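It would be a great kindness if you could assist me with a short task in structural biology. Thank you for your consideration; the sequence and its tokens are set out here.
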Amino acid sequence: MYELTFKKRVWIVKQYLGGVSTSKIALAQNISCRTVQKLAKIYAQDGWDALKDHKTGRSETILNESAVIIILDLRKRFGYGACHIEQILKQKGFAISHRQIEKVLVRNDMVKPNIKKQKPRKWVRYELPNPNDLWHTDWSFDPFTNQNVAVYIDDRTRLITCFGVFKRATAENSVALLYSGIAEYGKPKAVMTDHGSQYYANHPNAEQEKTLFRSTLDILGIKHCLARVNRPQTNGKVERFFRTYKEEYTIGTFSSLGDYIKHYNEVRLHMSLHYKTPKEVWSELVS
């Protein structure tokens, strides 16, 4: 029936009602007499609207009102995406796909529909096996305090081991922050940085072993790993943290960077950790 347009279905029924024989109508539209009779029966039962095209596939899922409220609340408070919200709802007993959650967010103008899917990335994400195998660190300007923020993040668990807000991004502050992280979580085997002046002497003929950051790592027995130039993906875990922080802090749920990092470490689920928190994974691996 669906190879016929709505206009043709109406024509068939009108011819039938006008007394034209079923066989002539069927011959004119290249269909069976049974189809003509079926269309006439549909019209007799439900009228002209019943002859319109119908969507194929599964019918639209009607979500529980409580689930919709939770979805919108999580988006408003934390800025979470559909996949992230899907995992939180699973913990609350709601089995709702991220596609359905995406539809709720789109209908409420909280996200824009993704018309074109992102192309697959060509690089492969690496991950060391144990906590404290490697810490990533970097600096970023904090638009919420108009100061500079530095963090150290554990490669395996994504745990923020230490953080600080400073007026100046210096090697001295980088070292002081490192010591505070070691005091709480132990010493990492290696630290990865970019070629920023806080970590690396960029002038010609510089002796890297004599720089403050490098000499401190040597004293502590920590290997210094340098990210590739013009390759931000190498130190991407810390870069991604800064991006996530700046996106989610704007929601207005958090009162300070410390408040956000506590949430990041202990509450926020991470896709790369199979939707566990950094603190949860850290505790599992170091116990």
User: Anything to note?
Assistant: The chain has eleven helices and five strands. The first strand starts at residue 135 and ends at 142. The chain has a mean pLDDT of 87. The domain at 135-286 is CATH 3.30.420.10 (Nucleotidyltransferase; domain 5).
